[in-house]
Amino acid sequence: MASSGATITAVAVFEHGRQIEGKSYLFDAQIYLGKEKPLLAALRYFNRDNHEFGDIGFYFIIARVAMMDSENGVNMAPRINGPSNSDYDLAGEVIKLIQIRVPDTQAAICRRCSTDITHLGTDGTDTDTSNEFKIDIREIIDPTQLPYVDICGTVNLTDDLACTFTIDAYQYISILKNQGAANAKTKVNNASNLKVQSSMPLMPVICEIPDTPRWRSSKNNGKRTVPRQGTYVAVTGFITGRVHPDLESTTGQRFRIVIESLVFLGRPVITSGSTPQAMSTASSSSARANMKFDFSTPTRPAKRRQEDPPTN
């Protein structure tokens, strides 16, 4: 079986962080999914840099993911009164985490009383029962962004009329139970007649080719070209929803991806020829001199603008 994998890039809301072993933490993460209910993911993060986590936090993340296995579940102690395995959509491991910081309460100015805010909680929500003012996270970043996925694997099923194809991406996810290539048993997917590793974590997707001029091929009479079954491909795109199986389906739930890029992968090719020469130091330095930002200069969070107090 060709190698495969799935990586997600998203704005995620982390809650209920609990330390599981050493510097490893497990979080319940919500990710926006348009008109559907948010994705709920169990994400493991190795806290190498000793980040401090509150009750709720907003993060830009890159994570390796697979669909949650409702039978085996997460290989960690469950949270008391927390979601069951069937409540989660995904399980995964965070590769990169960047915190989206809520402004310091001392630097924020209340529109209502025009003074330093002292009635905000640590997560930026208003603790004043009058609820006349609170910092909305959307003033910092809009969390309603669809997750972007990078996935590679073998095409299983194709539909030339709907211009869709499916991929089952298998990869190792440490927090999922009863998995591993050593214990994997090979079985045949009856729908596609392709051999798969049954015990490896799976990210099942259905990829939709948009009906736009970019994807219409002149070599195919202006129609969209769908990869053939058994083709090894790499796909990127946005997860737009869940596709639930019908009664006649031989596969379970999948995640729908509207593709942004599609690359056909074959055998590695070793290119020949001379290596491009780098630009001279003089020419590159003159261009860089026009750049204003300097990474060596400490940055401070932008201050909130004080608004004029309301007039009676």
Record the SSE blueprint.
Layout: E1 5-21, E2 24-31, E3 39-46, E4 56-67, E5 90-99, E6 148-159, E7 164-170, E8 186-189, E9 194-197, E10 202-208, E11 216-217, E12 223-224, E13 232-243, E14 254-264, H1 281-288
Parallel strand pairs: 3-5, 10-14
Antiparallel strand pairs: 1-2, 1-4, 1-6, 2-3, 4-5, 6-7, 6-13, 7-10, 8-9, 11-12, 13-14
Description:
- The chain is mainly β and 312 residues long.
- It contains one helix and 14 strands.
- The protein has one helix spanning 281-288; strands at residues 5-21, 24-31, 39-46, 56-67, 90-99, 148-159, 164-170, 186-189, 194-197, 202-208, 216-217, 223-224, 232-243, 254-264.
Low-pLDDT runs of 5+ residues are 105-120, 129-133, 180-197
Please trace the helix and strand order, writing H or E for each element: EEEEEEEEEEEEEEH
Mean pLDDT: 76
By secondary-structure content and strand pairing, the structural class works out as mainly beta
Distance between the termini: 72 Å
